[in-house]
Write a structure and sequence with these properties.
It contains three helices and no strands. With about 80 residues, it is mainly alpha-helical. It has one domain. Helix 1 packs across helix 2. The chain is flat and about 60 Å long. It starts with a helix and ends in a 9-residue tail after the last helix.
């Protein structure tokens, strides 16, 4: 375990452990969502992961037409 923490880092290992604890708690506890889709197991994790990917893709596409040339200020 110490080799994993040394290789992966203390902060990353702590966050990973926290995520594992939350996933186990997700299986144990019962949430009451406001809509029926929120009651699915691991819905918040999937929704968060999917939204991060969408935000990243939108950012990459915005970069393609908002980015200036490297010598923009030299002109």
């Amino acid at each position: 375990m110490k080799a994993l923490i040394k290789k992966f880092g203390k902060i990353n290992s702590s966050v990973l452990l926290l995520c594992i604890i939350f996933l186990v708690l997700e299986l144990i506890g019962h949430r009451h969502g406001e809509t029926s889709i929120e009651d699915f197991t691991f819905f918040p994790a999937f929704f968060g992961f999917l939204s991060c990917i969408i935000i990243f893709k939108i950012g990459v596409s915005l970069r393609s037409f908002l980015m200036k040339d490297e010598d923009y200020y030299d002109k």
